[in-house]
């Protein structure tokens, strides 16, 4: 009897091909207007919203979007909306009061046992609901001295077991840079886990290339990748290829979504998303209620609506396919389960 030979699966894209996709294919709002039909007064308002938080959307995603449907679930996440300019009572510039838990520039130490590093301000895409849309990233561009300070802080606190790379999107940094920066941290015996939060695997899956896999393989800590997918249309073949490759390397794969009005506020959509993620080896982790950041109020759902959606999801799916619905409350010791 013959057994199939298990060969190392090669990724269908070149090492570093993602860098070109990241730098050369982003479209300005004007490019977007030539792609979708928007009336003149909305264009003016959207241009103003764009000046507060600029539009960033890779061409490839734009091509997936239905030109005539301003309610397309992808487009709504990334297209500036005239409603962003309205006075939004209760919506804030820094809703999580992150400044209060920043012992060093670029380092947030809010929760026990884990620190979050704001590695970069660059993202593959700009999500209009992002709670860091007003984040003072320029104050967080790290010099090598500041990076050393971060490493020293982590070295001196042995209660820190987990380092979380965030941003912006930490995978917008080149693998060489990640490797160089993290080396001193990953050599600390008290660091048990490395977690990466990234939207690249859905937006530019080519970011998961052989070079990244090789770096990850050499790390002795457990590695967790938390992707950020909100809608089933974001789960494509290339995303699955990237997830398969990571899974083969033993990376734990989780997803977090944000519950967004007009994007994924339906039980069918959320249930399908969980099923599709699981087929790619990704477990649903968090379903975040919207952070009340200024400019995002049009994505907000009432708590009653969120609650009833969640009950319907629980009734429909096995427990492991139901993410925890959480909200972030400034000053709390963890995310708060919102049931
Ligand atoms: C969300 C968050 C974490 C991670 O929290 P988990 O519940 O472990 O996913 C860590 N630090 C900060 C500052 C956060 O906002
Ligand atoms: S990728 Fe993440 S950090 Fe970047 S804009 Fe979107 S939600 Fe914000």
Describe the structure.
- The protein has 339 residues and is an alpha/beta fold.
- It has one domain (17-337): Alpha-Beta Barrel (TIM Barrel), CATH 3.20.20.70.
- The chain contains twelve helices and nine strands.
- The chain has helices spanning 17-24, 29-33, 40-52, 59-64, 73-78, 144-156, 175-186, 200-203, 210-217, 237-248, 267-279, 303-316; strands at 107-111, 114-118, 162-166, 193-198, 222-228, 252-258, 283-288, 324-327, 336-337.
- A nine-stranded mixed beta sheet has the order 1-2-3-4-5-6-7-8-9.
- The longest helix has 14 residues, at 303-316.
- The mean pLDDT is 92.
- Bound molecules: pyridoxal-5'-phosphate and iron/sulfur cluster.
- Residues 108, 110-111, 114, 116, 164, 334-335 line the site of pyridoxal-5'-phosphate.
Q: What tags apply to this protein structure?
A:
339 residues; alpha/beta; TIM Barrel; nine-stranded mixed beta sheet; 12 helices; 34% helix; binds pyridoxal-5'-phosphate; binds iron/sulfur cluster
The class by helix and strand makeup works out as alpha/beta
Indicate the CATH architecture: Alpha-Beta Barrel
Helix content: 25-40%
- Catalogue the unreliable spans: none
Amino-to-carboxy terminus distance? 55 Å
Radius of gyration: 20 Å
Counting structural domains, the number is: 1
Number of helices: 12
Mean pLDDT comes to 92
The number of strands is 9
Overall spatial form:
globular
In short:
The chain has 339 residues and is an alpha/beta fold. It is built from 12 helices and 9 strands.
């Amino acid at each position: 009897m013959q057994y199939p030979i298990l060969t190392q699966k090669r990724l269908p894209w070149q090492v570093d091909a993602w860098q070109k996709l990241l730098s050369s294919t982003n479209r300005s709002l004007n490019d977007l207007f030539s792609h979708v039909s928007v009336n003149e007064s909305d264009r003016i308002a959207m241009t103003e919203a764009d000046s507060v938080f600029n539009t960033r959307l890779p061409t490839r995603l734009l091509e997936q979007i239905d030109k005539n449907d301003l309610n397309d679930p992808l487009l709504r996440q990334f297209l500036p909306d005239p409603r962003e300019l309205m006075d939004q009572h209760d919506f804030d510039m820094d809703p999580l009061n992150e400044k209060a838990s920043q012992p060093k520039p670029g380092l947030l130490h809010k929760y026990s046992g884990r620190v979050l590093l704001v590695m970069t301000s660059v993202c593959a895409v700009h999500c209009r609901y992002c709670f860091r849309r007003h984040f003072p990233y320029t104050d967080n561009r790290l010099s090598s001295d500041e990076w050393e300070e971060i490493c020293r802080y982590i070295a001196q606190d042995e209660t820190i077991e987990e380092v979380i790379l965030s941003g912006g999107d930490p995978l917008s940094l080149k693998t060489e840079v990640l490797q160089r920066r993290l080396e001193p941290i990953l050599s600390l015996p008290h660091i048990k886990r490395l977690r990466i939060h990234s939207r690249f695997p859905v937006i530019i899956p080519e970011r998961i290339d052989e070079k990244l896999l090789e770096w990850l393989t050499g790390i002795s800590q457990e590695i967790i990748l938390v992707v950020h997918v909100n809608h089933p249309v974001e789960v494509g073949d290339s995303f699955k290829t990237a997830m398969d490759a990571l899974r083969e390397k033993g990376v734990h794969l989780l997803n977090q979504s944000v519950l967004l009005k007009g994007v994924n506020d339906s039980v069918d959509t959320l249930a399908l998303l969980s099923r599709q993620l699981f087929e790619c080896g990704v477990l649903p982790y968090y379903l975040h209620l919207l952070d009340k950041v200024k400019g995002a109020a049009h994505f907000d759902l009432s708590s009653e609506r969120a609650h009833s959606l969640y009950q319907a999801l629980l009734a429909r799916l096995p427990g492991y396919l139901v993410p925890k619905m959480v909200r972030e409350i400034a000053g709390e010791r963890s995310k708060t389960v919102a049931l």
